Amino acid sequence: MTRPQPVFRRARRDDLPALVRLLADDPLGATRETPADPLPPAYAAAFDAIDRDPNQALVVVALPDREVAGLLQITFIPSLTHRGGWRAQIEGVRIASDLRDAGLGRQMFDWAIERARERDCHLVQLTSDKARPDAIRFYESLGFVASHEGLKLSLARRP
């Protein structure tokens, strides 16, 4: 049976509970996210900051039978390197667990990469936690190459 074509749209504030549940729906996200009702106010503040920024988009993948089937955040970053080129950073990628391995993630990335081309980006980049080998294999299957070492410095979170 063929699944209907997904619709890609900007996330809306009323999507926020579903987005946080989706982010929490994996082993790493379960330790980092708080899908409580009501949500902690930091989620709304972050959503509003992303939504106001013209170089950010929080994108929802919707299906006819599911308003929030997946999400990603894409950030367009100007740089002096590459002759003042722009790059697209993709993060916060999730597909609902019952829809994984159905091709929806590939469609989502095709859509996001096309948006990067439209914005004249010279590069699309992402990072993935080393504890997510399936995700890394998926990104490699899309043509992403582990060409750089990524380093992160964890800072203490505010209460």
SSE blueprint:
Layout: E1 7-10, H1 16-24, H2 27-32, H3 41-52, E2 56-63, E3 66-78, H4 81-84, E4 86-95, H5 104-118, E5 121-126, H6 133-141
Parallel strand pairs: 4-5
Antiparallel strand pairs: 1-2, 2-3, 3-4
Biggest sheet, strands in spatial order? 1-2-3-4-5
Q: Main beta sheet: strand number and arrangement? A: 5 strands, mixed
Cα separation of the termini: 48 Å
Count of domain modules: 1
Roughly what percent helix? 25-40%
Q: What general form does the structure show?
A: globular
Summing up helix and strand content along with how strands pair, one would put the structural category as alpha+beta
Continuous helix count: 6
CATH architecture: 3-Layer(aba) Sandwich
Proportion of beta-strand residues? 25-35%
| N-to-C SSE string, H for helix and E for strand | EHHHEEHEHEH
Q: According to CATH, what is the topology?
A: Aminopeptidase
Number of strands: 5
The chain-level mean pLDDT equals 93
Uncertain spans: none
Query: Which CATH C-level class is it?
Result: Alpha Beta
| CA radius of gyration | 16 Å
The CATH superfamily bears the name Gcn5-related N-acetyltransferase (GNAT)
